[in-house]
Amino acid sequence: MTFPCLSREKIISGTRVLLRLDLNVPIKEGKVTDDFRILRSMKTLEFLVSSGARTVIVAHIDDKEGGTLLPVFEYLKKKFKIEFSSFKEAGRKAAGLTPGSFLFIENIRENEGEVENDEAFAKELSMFGSLYINEAFSVSHRPHASIVGVPKFLPSYAGFLFEEEVRVLSEVFNPPRPFLFILGGAKFETKIPLIQKFLKLADHCFVGGALANDFFKVKGFEVGTSRLSEAVIDLSLILSHPKLSIPSDVVVKSDGGKSIKKPEEVKSTDVIFDAGPKTVEDIKKLILQSKFVLWNGPLGNYENGFASGTEALACAVSESKCRSIVGGGDTLAVISKLGILDKFSFVSTGGGAMLDFLADETLPGVIALEKSVG
């Protein structure tokens, strides 16, 4: 896979740059509470400062604290010469940028043409720079204007983090062995192709989280009111695959409180919320037998306080001698809370983008860079 990268370019002082970042970070009471994604983009930001670029930053944020990037701006202004602007005022303010400074535009998704990848809007965005840098790998599975539209109008490059994400995640297609793939979370319909692919690529696949409930159902077990896929999927061939493992015990919640049960012991009044301790021990044994671990998605409903299984798994992977690649929003939240981000070989900033790249071996944002005008 070859695409233009910032690491192989020299930027002349005064060059106008349009930079796409992913700054969709946790915010509480007007302050950034987890700066992992910001820090991972810092190398590109510092490179642009030292090169004397005049950079316009575009990014998005979900509907947190009113859907504004102002708290992220407050964070960045402690480190850089940077100004904040609405999209409407950005053209005028960008004209006044000096070498090594930034203009940070408010939530790009407030503009109708962004999500629709409107060509006129992409062209309007491209007017902010004479070249474009994509440093937003984690949203590059989205065919939005600031990801796939702009490269049609500007010479385009991958930022340092984007380049690293693609290079490291590509290791998965020819990894050291034995190779263990661990997949958790939900959204079964979108992850079936990934499971099928890695049952061929990996030496062992463990599927947990809400995804496992569908397997329990196929085995004829009661799952109570636990989360299930909405689609009807034939899992019989996957379930019988010799490389597949699913939880051997689960944490359930019912009127009587929390309890640990074997899957076949779950009652109609139970809700499965987490993997049990035996399951964690089973995975630990697989980790000890492996040289390479790829993990995406929690083992339990982390957002509702069922984090024990995921935290135990995080510790087991981080303490192993395996090369380890991990990703996913909830997975990242757990390992960040535990303070062990630096204990893994690589932590991807991508959730959906990571999964799509693993499934398709490319992304819309990667293809856009490959095809960009030059």
UniProtKB/TrEMBL annotation:
The reaction(s) this protein catalyses: (2R)-3-phosphoglycerate + ATP = (2R)-3-phospho-glyceroyl phosphate + ADP
GO cellular component terms, A-Z: cytosol
GO-annotated biological processes: gluconeogenesis; glycolytic process
Stored PROSITE patterns: PGLYCERATE_KINASE (PS00111)
Protein's UniProt keywords contain Ribonucleoprotein: no
Molecular functions (GO terms): ADP binding; ATP binding; phosphoglycerate kinase activity
A UniProt-annotated Pfam family: PGK
InterPro entries tied to this protein: Phosphoglycerate_kinase, Phosphoglycerate_kinase_CS, Phosphoglycerate_kinase_N, Phosphoglycerate_kinase_sf
Membership in a protein family: Belongs to the phosphoglycerate kinase family.
PANTHER family: PHOSPHOGLYCERATE KINASE, PHOSPHOGLYCERATE KINASE 1, CHLOROPLASTIC-RELATED
Protein name listed in UniProt: Phosphoglycerate kinase
Organism this protein belongs to: Candidatus Taylorbacteria bacterium RIFCSPHIGHO2_02_FULL_45_35
Highest classification ranks of the organism: Bacteria, Candidatus Tayloriibacteriota
